[in-house]
TrEMBL record, chain A:
<dbReference type="GO" id="GO:0005886">
    <property type="term" value="C:plasma membrane"/>
</dbReference>
<dbReference type="GO" id="GO:0035435">
    <property type="term" value="P:phosphate ion transmembrane transport"/>
</dbReference>
<keyword id="KW-0592">Phosphate transport</keyword>
<feature type="transmembrane region" description="Helical">
    <location>
        <begin position="215"/>
        <end position="232"/>
    </location>
</feature>
<keyword id="KW-1003">Cell membrane</keyword>
<dbReference type="GO" id="GO:0005315">
    <property type="term" value="F:phosphate transmembrane transporter activity"/>
</dbReference>
<protein>
    <recommendedName>
        <fullName>Phosphate transport system permease protein PstA</fullName>
    </recommendedName>
</protein>
<keyword id="KW-0813">Transport</keyword>
<feature type="transmembrane region" description="Helical">
    <location>
        <begin position="182"/>
        <end position="209"/>
    </location>
</feature>
TrEMBL record, chain B:
<dbReference type="GO" id="GO:0016020">
    <property type="term" value="C:membrane"/>
</dbReference>
<protein>
    <submittedName>
        <fullName>Phosphate ABC transporter ATP-binding protein</fullName>
    </submittedName>
</protein>
<dbReference type="GO" id="GO:0016887">
    <property type="term" value="F:ATP hydrolysis activity"/>
</dbReference>
<dbReference type="Pfam" id="PF00005">
    <property type="entry name" value="ABC_tran"/>
</dbReference>
<dbReference type="GO" id="GO:0005524">
    <property type="term" value="F:ATP binding"/>
</dbReference>
<dbReference type="InterPro" id="IPR005670">
    <property type="entry name" value="PstB-like"/>
</dbReference>
<keyword id="KW-0547">Nucleotide-binding</keyword>
<keyword id="KW-0813">Transport</keyword>
<keyword id="KW-1278">Translocase</keyword>
Amino acid sequence: MAANQTLQRRQSHLTRGHLPSYAVWVVLAASVVLGAALATLIGFSVVGWAVITAIVFVITATIVTAVAEGERKAKDRLVTFLVYGAFLIALLPLVSVLWTVLERGVPGLNYNFLFTSMNGVTGAVDNQALENGTPVLGGAYHAVVGTLQITLWATLISVPIGLLTAVYLVEYGAGRGLTKAITFFVDVMTGIPSIVAGLFAAALFSLLFGPGTRTGFVAAVALSVLMIPVVVRSTEEMLKIVPNELREASYALGVRKWRTITKVVIPTAISGIASGVTLSIARVIGETAPILVTAGFASSINMNVFSGWMSTLPTFIYYQILTPTSPTSPDPSTQRAWAAALLLILMVMLLNLVARFVARMFAPKTSR
Amino acid sequence: MSKRIDVKDLNVYYSKFLAVEDVNINIEARSVTAFIGPSGCGKSTFLRTLNRMHEVIPGARVEGEVLLDGDNLYDSAVDPVSVRGQIGMVFQRPNPFPTMSIRDNVLAGVKLNNRRISKSDADSLVEKSLQGANLWNEVKDRLGRPGSGLSGGQQQRLCIARAIAVSPQVILMDEPCSALDPISTLAIEDLINELKSEYTVVIVTHNMQQAARVSDKTAFFNIAGTGKPGKLIEYGDTTTIFNKPAVQATEDYVSGRFG
């Protein structure tokens, strides 16, 4: 064939049978109908319908693809369906939890709940509210205060210790025996059950200040035992990914090591460190057991972390469910517990949003 | 404002491994000296010993003397930080600080050391350094923008501006153009030619034409085989090294017959 000749286009040998894009939807519709029919045979329920439809759809669509487009495409489609299925199954509990908490928590989330404590709210008050149909009295203000105070103090303790430990591990201790020991113990600390951390703090403070010392600060110490390994780990990872070239650039300008760390390395990693810290806060804010053994339980407002018992939202929920204020009619207590659960989720969500915002605010700027 | 460097019987180690053996070299002030040689022959390692950056790597150490105008850098009483203040360095990959603006990058040597500087002094230092690095006209309207937004060649010139802003005696460059395109390389080479009127410049390069273009003197390093230490084979005027080298290995390397 001459070089200057152009080949004419012909029926392509490179393509094979191809299903139109609506084919999947047709199969899905058929599966829904078939699923409904099969589900009715064995006793209709929405869950049964969905499950049968899913199974029928995956099998049919795979077979149809195998026949029309070949084995490789069929495998591709099957795995795609399985991945989507796994995603939906993973999403189910999350959506279900959110839905349940919203449904039961929203009615209790009112001004009274947010800005009054349980001080003076007895079983009689609850019973009266039920009888008269008036709004439920009593709230979680003291628990919100306790949660914020204890978490704040736990953060104040853990962040400096965790940050400095990570700086040592990454910047100073590479290859040393102490580094290996610290890394090992941090790993062990990550796995400590939270109740053990609570017992540790309780025991430590009864040794120092006499038995039965229970204050918000003891709880903060217990939580920081849980927080420190998380802060160390996340900060360590963030410091490790700071390129060595930046450290060298700084050294080459005649900058001392600790200045290089405080002015170059940490600012470069700060967004990751900040989000790591926020996530560690989210991890401990929902702890119940260590709070119970360290801060006791209070039903009135206590602003002082250094004296007197305190309660947090998780312990508030725990007590409202386990020992309802009015044993004969637990409904008001249950309502308060769900409202507190919703509030706790909102706080954690807010923390995550703050983490993202902080990460974005501090992130190195690359725009032109 | 520039000093000479004399190296006497220098051995460079990584832990127990002898990486560069027995280097003797005299680098004159206000000149450009190029180090050439195959990969792994210890050019960069040797360059890093000249401002004590070598010891940043754990286990790295040095035997012998490096004299900066007669002062031994490796005297036990010498603070490596003050050495690095006098001998600046530009790296293979441009590495501006990502958290800082162009202006702050230039001022990094001052600001990171917490030295006080008035705004007008800072402004003139930024302009002088950026003009010295041939970057001023390109960035003068966006000094507040992040340095990482510049192109690779501009970033490298920003790093040079950052290095000359601390007014060093010597500037070491470790393959400064290996990550750059020919146009940016040309800009850097022009810059090196200008820098040598004020500074002592030492440059490591893999590009022999570059060595021939920019340097007054050239040092050829070679290695006998893997695991063996690198050695300084020949050192002399660039024209001599490229036209009439005394050693056969140098001849083979510069004429492309090597390996």
